[in-house]
Amino acid sequence: MSSNQLLSVLVTLLVASCAKALDLESAKEQPCFNITKTAVLDLNWVGTLKTLYYPLMSRLDLFSSATNLIQKDPKDISEASVYYDLCVYWNLYSNGTITARGYNGKSREYQTKLIKGMEIFEFAPVVGTGYSGTKYTTLTDNKSFFFTPFCMDGQMSWGIGSTTPTLPEDTIKMVYDHAESLGFKREYFTELRYDRCDIEMIEYSSNDADNAIETTTTGNSGDGGYLIPES
């Protein structure tokens, strides 16, 4: 094979790789399982949160959230565009409404319904379907991040809500160790980088959204969960 032919093959393979569509089936890891321990979220800290980033997650969580934000069939979304262009962040409102923003100006509004404080809550789009189910908070430091396994459509995923676009290496290790302790596998771990993102933050009041939060039972104590002690 000549050098020109080899170059042509490499270019073709590169283009094919970049054009690879999202494959949600291959990202499925395991069916939903019972969460027996939740972490206590400091509601005073939660009340100060206006914006959260999404730096670490499982592949299924990333692909599902991206598909729901972009509102296209997964086969029409390239995997590369999700990693390079999603740049998603979440605006939180005091009534339980959350707005995801990213992917060149797209937005999607979600509603939470508390089951047990912020430790267990239902999550779903305000309009339409997809990326909905039950989230559990199982790890937090109550100052920079929380970890939420997510049961949706019979499959379990997980993601991190963080006050910063990146997390320190020791926190990342803690998150990965915790995910593995719950049964998640490292080959399904992934991340979003924000260093290429040009994020224009939306100025808003935490009371802007109109949809009122729905609550069933309330509580602020976990079942011996994974609250990180103060050092």
Walk me through the structure.
It is a single chain. This protein has 231 residues and is α+β, with helices and mostly antiparallel strands. The longest helix is centred in the first third of the chain and has 16 residues. It is 24% helix and 28% strand. The C terminus is likely disordered. The protein has a single domain, classed as Lipocalin (Beta Barrel), CATH 2.40.128. It contains 6 helices and 14 strands. The strands form 2 sheets. Strands 1, 2, 4, 5, 6, 7, 8, 9, 10, 11, 13 and 14 form a 12-stranded mixed β-sheet that branches. The protein is globular. A hairpin with a 3-residue loop joins strand 6 and strand 7.
Helical segment tally? 6
Main β-sheet description: 12 strands, mixed
Query: Which radius of gyration do the C-alpha atoms yield?
Result: 19 Å
Termini separation: 61 Å
Classification by helices and strands:
alpha+beta
Corresponding CATH superfamily: Calycin beta-barrel core domain
List unreliable stretches of 5+ residues: 9-18, 208-231
Whole-number count of domains: 1
Shape: globular
**Percent of residues in β-strands:** 25-35%
How many E-type strands?
14
Q: Mean pLDDT across all residues, rounded? A: 83
Signal peptide: 1-21
Keywords: Signal
Topology summary:
Layout: H1 3-18, H2 24-27, E1 30-31, H3 43-46, E2 51-53, E3 56-58, H4 59-70, H5 79-85, E4 89-92, E5 97-102, E6 106-116, E7 120-125, E8 133-136, E9 139-140, E10 145-152, E11 155-162, H6 169-181, E12 189-191, E13 214-215, E14 226-227
